[in-house]
Write a structure and sequence with these properties.
The complex is a heterodimer. By secondary structure, chain A is of the alpha/beta class. Helix content of chain A is 41%, strand content 16%. Chain A contains five helices and four strands. Chain A has a four-stranded parallel sheet, with helices on both faces. The longest helix of chain A has 18 residues, at 82-99. Chain B folds into two domains: 2-236, no CATH class; 239-371, no CATH class. Helix content of chain B is 37%, strand content 11%. Chain B has 14 helices and eight strands. Classes of the chains: A alpha/beta, B alpha/beta.
């Protein structure tokens, strides 16, 4: 098909990023003019520990093809321990989604510091490629959720 | 102290006499125990201060109108006016332990009294039995000798009970109550097996008033417990397999909850749903009309009320790790969705990941309320 590239599946990824590390890292990627795919919709949280599992559930059920949760590296949380709490919640989210027949590998947790603009861009690039292979979320466009 | 308690007339009366002893000797200041309603068709948890009321006590009535863990919270969480003795089934005990972790039950001054649970019926079924003049207790006690307890003919136990692998206080990684009353594997109508924490029974210089004949736990009891637990475990595993088979892709989730009428009863009756204000009882999901039109435009249509599946999935994420398997949710569902099967199966997966056993010990912390720095490093 000649217009294949125009109809290619473009994943929609919702990213929950902590203010102090990953969001700032994403900002650095931007100000450094590092290219990464525009498939990610960023929501800034003050801390990854602010992530209630309901945020991820809402994104998943509304048809997000992937969810990226970004926080400070272990030991570097601006609020001491928020990222450890986020990690537990992500483990719970993975277990629950798996039981419900939803691929838990659509929900990623990454530690990306404020100085890791390149790593943020690489992470998004890698995630978009991975989700493209997986295809659209089975919840995409479901009116009866 | 472990030993036999003599049964003079009936098992229920022997237990009630024990309870009366606790109350009249001042070992407890109040008892939380199921009392038969005046019409006799239900047995409801009641905070008893007057020992005379104990003639209506029905600690063996196989009915569970509310999880006793919830009501134990009512009478302890903001300061009990004395020590309460709480007569609980093992799923209620587990709920009390879980709620104590979020300080919605205070166990500091509670005397926990556990009774072997032989299975319970739905509230409406129990009422019908009473109307029909049936006695569900006597045959169950007789069958408890060898652990093969069956429901009355033409009745069924609550589905949660048939898959409850931890019905016996203090066994199967259950928190041991201060007094455990054993019905399984005992000479029915003659003696009861009682195991008690002495230090909780004497107050000051007053010695324990329980007149037990000291003995080692009889082998027949361990066998009967094992028989019952094996049958329940097999049923549980079968139901887990069935759940996982029908949950092979996310569309199955829509099927599972397709008939949900969004009454939110499951959340209201759940003893573990610990949020003081559930987000689904706030106006967070009340949107301006235009928003619904936008969403309907985008997806072609929008099921209303919106976010029904989000309600269930959020509950799984918030509390399935601490699900005690009491099955109140399934009882309360007006469209017979097997909510408890879903939450137990999902809960088991989370619990296994964290090595967490709901109701094991009040000193543990809920999965979602704590963390370790050196864990889950495969996630990052």
């Amino acid at each position: 098909m000649s217009d294949e590239h125009t109809t290619e599946f473009e994943p929609r990824i919702v990213a929950f990023l902590c203010n102090w590390c990953t969001y700032t890292g994403a900002d650095l990627a931007g100000t450094s003019r590092i290219q990464y795919p525009p498939n990610v919709r960023i929501i800034r949280l003050m801390c990854s520990g602010q992530l209630d599992p309901i945020y991820v559930a809402k994104a998943v059920l509304e048809g997000a093809d992937g969810v990226l949760i970004g926080g400070c590296h272990p030991g570097d949380c601006h609020y001491q321990s928020g990222n450890y709490k986020a990690r537990r919640r992500v483990a719970i989210i993975h277990q629950v989604l798996e039981q419900l027949g939803f691929d838990p590998d659509r929900v990623w947790l990454r530690w990306i510091s404020a100085s890791e603009g390149q790593y943020f861009a690489d992470t998004v690039t890698e995630m978009v490629a991975t989700i493209k292979k997986k295809g659209p979320s089975p919840f995409r466009g479901q009116w009866s959720i | 102290m472990k030993g036999w308690l003599k049964v003079k007339d009936s098992t229920e009366q022997a237990i009630n006499r024990l309870l009366e002893t606790l109350l009249t000797n001042g070992i407890v200041d109040g008892l939380l125990v199921p009392l038969r309603t005046p019409d006799g068709r239900n047995a409801v948890p009641t905070l008893v201060r007057d020992p005379a009321l104990l003639e209506r006590a029905a600690p063996l009535a196989p009915v569970l109108p509310v999880n006793g863990g919830t009501v134990l919270g009512r009478v302890t969480a903001t300061g009990a006016l004395g020590r309460v003795g709480a007569v609980l089934r093992n799923c209620e005990l587990r709920a009390a332990v879980e709620l104590s972790k979020v300080r919605q039950v205070l166990l500091d001054d509670v005397l926990l009294i556990g009774v072997d649970c032989l299975g319970t019926y739905r509230v409406d079924d129990y009422a019908r039995m009473v109307e029909e003049g049936l006695d569900p207790v006597t045959p169950a006690l007789a069958a408890a000798c060898d652990g093969q307890v069956e429901p009355l003919t033409s009745y069924a136990f609550r589905p949660a009970c048939t898959m409850c692998e931890r019905p016996i206080p203090g066994t199967g990684q259950s928190y041991a109550p201060d007094i455990a009353i054993g019905l399984l594997g005992v000479p029915n109508g003659e003696r009861l097996w009682v195991s008690a924490r002495d230090e909780k029974l004497g107050r000051g210089e007053v010695p324990s008033p329980l007149h037990l004949e000291p003995a080692e736990e009889p082998a027949a009891r361990a066998e009967a417990v094992q028989t019952l637990v094996a049958a329940r475990t097999a049923e549980r595993d079968q139901r887990f397999v069935a759940f996982r088979e029908r949950m092979h892709n996310p569309a199955s989730l829509l099927t599972e909850f397709a008939t949900c009428i969004r009454c939110q009863n499951c959340m209201r009756v759940c003893p573990i749903c610990y949020c003081k204000e559930c987000i689904f009882r706030t106006d967070v999901f009340d949107h301006p009309s235009a928003r619904y039109w936008d969403w309907a435009e985008r997806k072609g249509g929008l099921r209303l009320p919106s976010d029904t599946l989000l309600f269930h999935v959020t509950r799984m994420l918030h509390m399935a790790h601490a699900c005690v398997g009491c099955g109140m949710c399934s009882d309360a569902c007006p469209v017979s969705i097997p909510v408890a099967d879903v939450f137990r199966a999902v809960g088991q997966a989370v619990q296994e990941r964290f090595g967490y056993v709901p109701g094991r010990a009040p000193t543990e912390e809920m999965v979602i309320a704590t963390f370790r720095e050196d864990e889950l490093q495969e996630l990052g």
